[in-house]
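Write out this protein's structure.
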Amino acid sequence: MKRVPVSIYAEMTPNPRVMKFVSNKLLLKSDSVEFKNIDEAKPSALATKLFHFPFVKEVFISGNYIAIAKFDIVEWDDVAQEVRMFITEFIQDGGVVVHEERLTPIKEEKTELTSDPIRNPKNLGEIEARIVDILEEYIKPAVAQDGGNIEFMAYNEKIVEVQLQGACSGCPSSTMTLKNGILGILQKKLPTLVDDVVAINR
């Protein structure tokens, strides 16, 4: 079997429970995918295997990195090298990180269960569409640098609801990021239209 040349390095994120493992190869073509348990991880053999580590809580994959959230039973200093080598060997051996064609049914299922406007762009009004554009252009790239993702969920009575994923989910500094960073940008770009930004978990 021909081995795939790849290099992976570990990088801390603002969330002490989440470590980002960055690859020199693209791991996912679509935006991002988050697995909160081993049952959700079926489209990804790598994520499934990562959940076999007793300390792995959640796996988030986007672009060229994997952000892993851990339980507090271990410190990253003790396990990061082991996880980095495991991911490296999986990719070197030709493993498919995510079978993206298997993600579509999951997304469609979520669309049927929820009325998230972001899942159905046709439902977006003018203000919602502008909020999504601002998030995509100004906020998502910065959040991705920290190993996370942000999704627009709703806009009601001048309050923007977002979902934080990856390293941003449960991060101690995420409230500050929401209030100082995201809210500030939205209020600057959409004066009088946004009073607050709140994170919701689904």
